Structure formats: C-alpha cells, structure tokens
Amino acid sequence: MGHKGFKDLAVWQKAKDLAVSIYRISNSEMKSVDFGLRDQVRRSAVSVASNLAEGDERDTDKESVRYFFIAKGSVAELRTQLQIAHESGYLNGTMYETLEKEYSTLGKRIGKLIQARRTSPRL
C-alpha cells in the first residue's frame, strides 16, 4: 500500500515527539526562562512538525519540498535558541546535548526527505 499521509512519515513522527518533549522541558527545566525565548523555542519546535505535515499534503513535490525546507530552517532556529538557553544558564548541559543531537539528526533526516522528493515522484 502507498503513502497514506503525513502521519506515516517517520520524520514527522519524530518531529512531533520532539515538540512534545520541548513543551514538557519548557514547563519544567526552562520555567525561569524569559517568556519570549521560551515561547520562541516552543513555536520553532511546533513549526518543524507543522511544516512537514503541510508540505506532505501539498499537491506537487515542488510545493512539498518548499515546506520541508521551511521545516529544516525551523530546526536551525530551534538549535540556535536551545544553545542560547543553555549558554544563558536556563538549560542544563545534559539536556542541551541530548536535544542538540536529536535536532541535528532530525535536520539531516529532513534533508534526506527533501532529496528523495526532489528526485523521485510520489506513488
């Protein structure tokens, strides 16, 4: 059976799970973070999963790839924000390293999805 929708994408599932983790962490570990930074971290995390979903639902691979690039950009935004939170003392080293690794890997996976959609049309 073919592709059923964005919820079948392993990369979307991972992005969604990480966004849920970001919300949980921001409620516990990052409670004292400036509201603006905490809100932006959350928005970036949600943006990754949301743009993967929106891109996958587009009619053409060209449109899909455009949204996947936005998702990849949101990963870079989030990695920057997490580093700022860490260097400001709002996110401990272990948590930062874990999230940095997870989001770095996710960015690479989104890159592979982009490559796949650019070179072979969906079934």
What features would you highlight for this structure?
de novo design (two linked rop proteins), elongated, 123 residues, 77% helix, mainly alpha
Structure overview:
The chain has 4 helices and no strands. The termini are close together. With 123 residues, it is mainly α. It has a single domain (6-119), classed as Up-down Bundle (de novo design (two linked rop proteins)). It has helices spanning 10-28, 35-56, 61-87, 93-119. The model has no long low-confidence stretch (mean pLDDT 90).
Spell out the blueprint of helices and strands.
Elements: H1 10-28, H2 35-56, H3 61-87, H4 93-119
Helix pairs in contact: 1-2, 1-4, 2-3, 3-4
State the gist of this model.
This protein has 123 residues and is mainly alpha-helical. The chain has helices at 10-28, 35-56, 61-87, 93-119.
Helical fraction: over 70%
Distance between the termini: 10 Å
Low-pLDDT residue intervals, each spanning 5 or more residues? none
Look at the structure and give the mean pLDDT. 90
